[in-house]
Amino acid sequence: MLCALLLLLLMLLLGSLRLCWRLGLAALATGTQRLGRSRQVAQLLALLDTAVLRRTWGLLGESRTCRSLWDWLRRRRAPPWAAGGGQPGAGGAPAGSEEEMSRLLAMAEVPEEELNPFQVLGVEATASDAELKKAYRRLAVLVHPDKNHHPRAEAAFKVLRAAWDIVSSPERRKEYEMKRMAESELTKSMSEFLSRLQDDLKEAMNTMMCSKCQGKHKRFEMDRDPLSARYCAECGGLHPAEEGDFWAESSLLGLKITYFAMMDGKIYDITAGASCHSGVPSLSPALLEAPCTVGEGMVGLSIY
User: Would the pLDDT of 302 be above 60?
Assistant: First the structure.
């Protein structure tokens, strides 16, 4: 500190001398203009304004001592939290405080009863008491207002303290864990319920009521493009299907017949429901000359 003050006094002295030097040169130049410039005066002015003297001042300003002094003065004038590149929490604080400060401040608006203390401390929920204490002490050193001069250090430390109060008290920690367990079970049950409901709705959408057998038949959505959904055995090509079309295709040398229909813009396998209705088995597979519609060939079969 004493050396810094001495350097400051030295720089002030040199600055004053340099200012006096320039003022003296200006006054001398003004006087010579009024009194007339003699040869001796001109030589004196030329000597005083030589490149050597200007270079001397330049070298003095570029010296390590001067640069160190100016850097020290800038650091003294800057805010305590702005010395590390202008970012809050970087100046005068341990490394990593800026990241932890931002992380804790992001949770400053969370109500205390909804705060996750393990997330605040940056540890797993299964952490031991020693690990929790170690994490708290590390963060306290980084964000405590006495250690970190960030303008919101107090808010960050408040979040940290609230988390520590929960995990450091056996009663509060047990209460927190029971609450989280209940919330987890509720979330799991709700997820299972929604999953079952989705499956039931999907099954209901793909179920057809049959008035002939009074039962239910499933339909299966096929991965077919409606523009090339119908296979023609005569030409061996694929033809487009229209809404309500109902046709049959054979496989295994004609031993297996599969019935298809286009409903709601999609192709479905409706073999299970079509087999119940009279007249359907006599439908010639893959013939397109006289297409049958769902309403004509499947009387009494409807989507449930």
Answer: no
**Eight-state DSSP code of residue 110:** S
pLDDT band, very low/low/confident/very high, at 164 (cuts 50, 70, 90): very high
pLDDT at position 139: 92
Q: At what angle do helices 51-62 and 64-77 cross, to 10 degrees?
A: 50
CA–CA separation, 105 vs 87, rounded Å?
Answer: 15
Give the helix/strand (H/E) hosting 238.
Answer: strand 238-239
Give the residue range(s) of CATH 1.10.287.110 domains in the chain. Answer: 82-168
4-12 own/partner pairs: CB under 8 Å, 24+ apart: 4/69, 4/72, 7/65, 7/68, 7/69, 8/69, 8/73, 11/66, 11/69
Please tell me the distance from the alpha carbon of residue 167 to that of residue 117, in angstroms, as a whole number.
7
**Calpha distance 241→262 (Å, rounded):** 7
pLDDT band at 91 (very low <50, low <70, confident <90, very high): very low
Closest CA to 122 of 87, 96, 144: 96
Q: Let me know: does 108 contact 156? Beta carbons within 8 Å.
A: yes
Question: For the chain, what is the largest distance between any 2 Cα atoms, rounded to a whole number of angstroms?
Answer: 133
**What are the distances in angstroms from CA 220 to CA 18, 204, 215, 236?**
95, 12, 17, 24
Assigned token pair, 25: 């040169």
Which residue, 141, 37, 50, is CA-closest to 97? 141
Is there a contact between 81 and 149 (Cβ–Cβ < 8 Å)?
yes
Tokens at residue 2, please? 């004493």
- The confidence score (pLDDT) of residue 304 equals 33
What is the CATH number that goes with domain 82-168? Answer: 1.10.287.110
pLDDT at 56 over 70: no
Query: What predicted TM-score, i.e. pTM, was given to this entire model?
Result: 0.39
